[in-house]
Specification:
Strand order of the largest sheet: 4-5-14-11-16-9-8
Distance between the termini: 44 Å
Shape: globular
Number of helices: 4
Largest sheet: 7 strands, antiparallel
Length: about 300
């Protein structure tokens, strides 16, 4: 069978819908972890995943260190940069918030993006499933949640060397309560903070390029944060998109099993005010000038 790869994928980012359609239930082919490679139905992915010794940091919280090969890291980075690109030059969208003369990251020293999984290559969805199953093979308490895991949303966070993410836990409208969350790291090493309860002492683990974490089951409500990025620690061979305005630092790639039935009816463009709709958070609404017009160009109005 031909190997499944992102390497030759080239596509443009389609305009994102204002409303998400209900996706019919699908029955994915079973995914089985195999020593040295993973199988998805009839398609094998040799050498795509480097199965190293997993670490269970907490019950239900698993680290798969260096599980992504250098080639797969590059392909994921290329995919992220394409999918989260601005729709057209000078127009806000994806990772970028554009004004009349500048394009900035959409959230200060970081940029956030999420949208339906069909905005990504089919292989991207399959990889998320396989990573979940690999964690379930290591951590029995995750075995069934991982088998039930169906990625329906892809999320891409870009961090500069000063980028941070405050302590939080993922609400159930961003990931189902009974399904794991799968996150890959590409680029600079980062300090990932975690704890189960707010009153507990902070714990942390360093995530290097190619590492993947999965948390679910008793760790589904894990409180976590991105505490620090260590600039200059990315693999030297990693090639960053020259159009990325902030240069190369770190990208987290997350697969989530969530849909409109859970309350997620909007993508990041809407929520962050890159396309203004009733779902836009108030702090991201364009400011008004004295004449009543919105300041700055590049924002889109939802239909």
């Amino acid at each position: 069978h031909a190997p499944l790869s992102f390497a030759m994928l080239c596509f443009s980012r389609a305009a994102m819908p204002r409303r998400w359609e209900q996706r019919p239930e699908s029955h994915a082919a079973p995914v089985t972890a195999v020593t040295g490679h993973l199988e998805a139905g009839s398609v094998e992915i040799p050498r795509a995943l480097q199965m190293t010794k997993a670490r269970e940091l907490l019950p239900g919280f698993v680290l798969l260190p260096k599980v992504l090969s250098a080639e797969l890291q590059q392909n994921l980075l290329d995919t992220a940069c394409r999918v989260a690109a601005a729709p057209t030059p000078g127009q806000s969208g994806g990772w970028y918030r554009c004004s009349a003369s500048t394009a900035q990251l959409n959230d200060g020293n970081k940029a956030r993006f999420w949208d339906r999984i069909d905005k990504f290559p089919e292989e991207f969805r399959r990889l998320g499933e396989q990573l979940a199953v690999a964690a379930g093979e290591t951590c029995p308490i995750l075995k069934q949640p991982a088998m039930d895991f169906e990625p329906r949303v892809g999320a891409l966070n870009f961090y500069t060397g000063k980028g941070r993410m405050n302590w939080h836990k993922d609400d159930y409208n961003f990931a189902k309560k009974d399904r794991p969350i799968v996150m890959a790291s590409v680029g600079d090493t980062a300090e990932f903070g975690y704890k189960m309860q707010a009153h507990e002492p902070d714990a942390s683990v360093r995530l290097e390029s190619g590492d993947v974490i999965i948390f679910g089951g008793p760790a589904r409500d894990l409180i976590h944060a991105l505490l620090r990025v260590y600039p200059g620690t990315a693999p030297e061979a990693l090639r960053w998109d020259p159009h990325l305005k902030a240069g190369g630092h770190r990208v987290s790639i997350t697969w989530r099993d969530v849909g409109v039935e859970d309350g997620l009816t909007f993508n990041s463009d809407e929520r962050l005010g890159l396309t203004v709709t009733e779902n836009t958070l108030p702090r991201y609404l364009p400011r008004r000038s004295k004449g009543g017009k919105s300041r700055g160009k590049g924002y889109r109005r939802g239909a």
